[in-house]
Amino acid sequence: MKKILAFLLCFTVGFSAIGQIHDPIQWKTSVEKVSETTYNLVSTAAIEGDWHLYAQEVPKGGPIPTTFTYDDEGGKIKIVGNTSEPEGVIKFTTLFGEEGMNIKSFAKKAVFKQEIELVDASVSQINAFVEFIACTDEMCLPPKEVDLTFDLTKATAVTASAEATKETKTTDQVASKETKKEEKKGLLGIFFIAFLSGFAALLTPCVFPMIPMTVSFFTKQSKSKSQGIRNAIIYGLSIIGIYVLLGSVVTAVFGADALNALSTNVWFNLVFFLILVIFAVSFLGAFEITLPSSWATKVDSQADRGGLIGIFFMALALAIVSFSCTGPIVGTLLVEAASKGGIAPIVGMLGFSSAIALPFALFAAFPGWLNSLPKSGGWLNTVKVVLGFLELALAFKFLSNADLVLQLHLLEREVFIAIWIAIFGALAFYLFGKIQLPHDSPISHISVGRLSLGLIVLSFTIYMIPGLWGAPLNLISAFPPPQHYSESPYGVGFTKKGTASVQQDNHEALPEGAHLMPPHDIISFHDYDKGLAYAKKVGKPVMLDFTGHACVNCRKMEQNVWVKPKVLDVLKNKVVLISLYVDDKRPLKDHEVVESKLNPGKKLKYIGQKWSELQTIKYKANSQPFYVLMNHDESNISDPVGYMPDADEYFNWLEEGVTNFKK
């Protein structure tokens, strides 16, 4: 069954790559007349299937933004303000780096408007062009430019098009259903994680002892069991309301987009690293972070008023008194949720507070269950300490984010993994009772639960150790820096003994224009002419690898297929590899700048545009990865292929080409 599925996948991708040129975004223009001299230039993008278009502003290191350039006709028109765009959806993607980023994009349909004023009434047509990139969740096409023409003589009055605008909004809402589904999945994930975090906070010394005290208060003060249940439920709902209000205030003050931008900001990551370290040290017992005692006193006095207001202030008093335990968890959740944008902070606080409020309502309804609760004791502090270690480990993720953006190479992969090994190793020793912290009770033995958790943490620590020598560590791949961001791409202390390493140490041994691709040590060229010249010199066939820095399927091929011994042998010894990056944004040298054959009148400005045009014109394809085996006369020796995750099939394709070259 797996082979059948793999065959169908390869057939589908291969057909789309070879049989046609992808052009998933089509543009059309229209004009709205606002007054005698004011017009709106409307550019509408129709986006096929799972493809999407990025916004006009994207994070640094991301894709090229959608950019409109308007011809002012020699000063005859005035461009007013910026081009407006639809609301779109902010989604997290790893297309543009293993660390990933949140980028605003549009699906199905996107309408952009630019207001202009006529300085010269004789102008009847305005020319412009849009530069953009089309992507799915797994791949991107090369950047593209499309000419736009706006005919002012066919403009429609804004009032007359009100119904059309309304219809367009409805169409956009229907078109964005798929992206909204993905957004809902993300919010459900945040709610679930926040809910579990609420249960963790519940098992801390600040909150857990409050359960029997509070439930007992309601059952004794209420005239009937039903009234006690009602009051406890109101108490639980008040807790939820307080925390949801906190999430709403954070979102309202900073704004969803601002929070999202903060989450990828260098200074924000550095500040939050310091805050998490402070929270962690507090959890470990060095000091306690508390709100002013006067707050608790004033709120507690209001709780004596009785009725609904009194119950609400009892819930508020719980939130204030337990802040030393819940504050660090709430702060972490708010930032993590903020990185998703939108209403995620509100959803996160809803999940967190629901987990805390639920036990109060349940134990009030069934007071007999209180007898089954474990007694308060030293185990509550153990929970707090474990959370402190986890906060400390998470803190270094934020420090790593800042280091990656600044490219300082201070916290490379090996250093990050070593720090995590130290943190979780210390946690394992703590759980085994070998380390005592300030607020721990003396223990003569450890429980089965504590021993089990200690074994799990110790196993996790041992699992991370091979990461120092280059192991991928798939279980935590989202946390440490990527493998190429390291002291050595081959791991600490590892020395290559083959020819490739000699060539790496002595770059003069490499052919002119060649590079070594770690960790496979494949000799690769990024220049077509130099690679072809070398292939003729050594008498081997050429393999063109049309790839991209943002191509996920390209990385999958390199990491999962190229690494297979028999495939690697062919790539290293039987062919000359020329990797051409179609999204390479480095500018071409002056003498290399030529007019585009696909878009007459436009110049090829970037290296990637040159290779993209070569692929499109010569091979009638523009998707990546795309592999071509050819003779020295540049004729194909086998049919080109696209993404092919089956290593055996890919090897057979390579062998067929090598055999045909020898004939």
Please explain how this structure is put together.
- The chain has 20 helices and 17 strands.
- With 663 residues, the protein is α+β, with helices and mostly antiparallel strands.
- The protein folds into 4 domains: 152 residues, Thiol:disulfide interchange protein DsbD, N-terminal domain (Immunoglobulin-like); 181 residues, no CATH class; 119 residues, no CATH class; 164 residues, Glutaredoxin (3-Layer(aba) Sandwich), CATH 3.40.30.
- Strands 5-8-2-1-12 form a 5-stranded mixed β-sheet, with helices on one face.
- Strand 13 and strand 14 form a beta hairpin.
- Helix 3 packs antiparallel against helix 10, helix 4 crosses helix 11 and helix 5 runs antiparallel to helix 11.
- The protein is flat and about 90 Å long.
Core attributes:
single chain, 663 residues, alpha+beta, Immunoglobulin-like, 4 domains, 5-stranded mixed sheet, 20 helices, 15% strand, flat, disordered N terminus
Concise account of the structure shown:
By secondary structure, the chain is α+β, with helices and mostly antiparallel strands.
Q: Let me know the number of strands.
A: 17
Rg of Cα set:
31 Å
Question: What general outline do the C-alpha atoms trace?
Answer: flat
Low-confidence residue ranges: 1-19, 160-179, 256-261, 497-508
Oligomer: single chain
Taking the alpha carbons of the first and last residues, their distance comes to: 36 Å
Largest sheet composition: 5 strands, mixed
**Helix coverage percent:** 40-55%
| β-sheet strand percentage | 15-25%
Structural class of the secondary structure composition?
alpha+beta
Structural domains: how many: 4
| Overall mean pLDDT | 76
- Arrangement of strands in the largest sheet: 5-8-2-1-12
User: How many helices?
Assistant: 20
Signal peptide: 1-19
Protein name: Thiol:disulfide interchange protein DsbD
Organism: Tenacibaculum lutimaris
Domain Cytochrome C biogenesis protein transmembrane: 190-400
